[in-house]
Amino acid sequence: MTENNTKEKTSICWRGKHLKVDILYSEAGVAQQVLVSSKKGSILVDAGDGVLRDLWSRAFTWERLKGIIITHGHFDHIGGLYSLLGFMRMIGRKGLLKIAAPENCEEVRCLVDCYLRKYSTTSPYQFAVEYLKPGQTVDIAGMIIKAHKAVHCGSIKTIGITSQLPALSYRLTAGGEIVALSGDTGKSAPLKELVKDADLAILEATYEKSSDVSSEYLENVHLSEDIAHEIGKLAKEYILIHKAKRQR
What residues make up the domain containing 60? Predict the structure, then answer.
């Protein structure tokens, strides 16, 4: 159940029978990091700026971090990845760390390759990196993670909508329990398939109202809160995250 029976708030914790979710931080254009845990360990979904501090402040046990899965290469979703890898090297975290990201996600590839070129001979832990296509799965910490297609273009104030990114949504399953996480995405048919009948859906809702932006943005860049609410109802429970700072 979601704490306090609310569907929207910061620092959200959700507990099911087999999975636990902590929204460490999420604000559009700043950072996002979501921790999903099972009895066998934890997976970090996205690693935005400040993720090291977010985990450290919670007295996180670093050996429990079995994997990092990235939805796409924008800075607010990978900005803290390199510092996280370096910190675990410094403290001597051992064992295997699995990393998964969309196929052709050059930002993740560059960061991981940079770390390995510099520290492969002194890193106390090993990497297993997979670049996934929609439909592919990876097993981490007793969770089956299935990649789903996400439609996400960049958006810059000085340019407008940019090209389509390598981007994925994920459906994590353990003990028959399902957590679906959209990542950044426009409204699309694959998104409904991702969310349907999940025990928990975690959906981005960057825009406050669909009436505030054009249909092109809603279809290719981000969801609005009203659209995210509509899609979220396909799951048993849902949480809206990745909101932009609202102007009041």
Answer: 3-241
**Residue 4: left (phi > 0), alpha (psi -120 to 50), or beta?**
left
pLDDT in tens, 97-146: 999 999 999 999 999 999 999 999 999 999 999 999 999 999 999 999 99
For the whole model, what pTM was predicted? 0.93
246 occurs within a structural domain: no
Please choose, from the candidates 182, 218, 187, the residue with its C-alpha nearest in 3D space to the C-alpha of residue 200: 182
Dist. CA 185–CA 240, nearest whole Å: 13
Q: Report d(CA 33, CA 52) in Å as an integer.
A: 10
HEC sequence for the chain: CEHHHCCCCCCCEEECCCCEEEEEEEECCCEEEEEEEECCEEEEECCCCCHHHHHHCCCCCHHHEEEEECCCCCHHHHCCHHHHHHHHHHHCCCEEEEEEEECCCHHHHHHHHHHHHHHCCCCCEEEEEEEECCCCEEEECCEEEEEEECCCEEEECCCEEEEECCCEEEEEEECCEEEEECCCCCCCHHHHHHHCCCCEEEEECCECCHHHCCHHHHHHCCCEHHHHHHHHCCCCCEEEECCCCCCC
Q: How many domains does the chain contain in total? A: 1
Place of tokens 């975290």: 93
In a domain, 25, yes or no: yes
Say which CATH number the domain at 73 has.
3.60.15.10
Radius of gyration of the chain (CA): 17
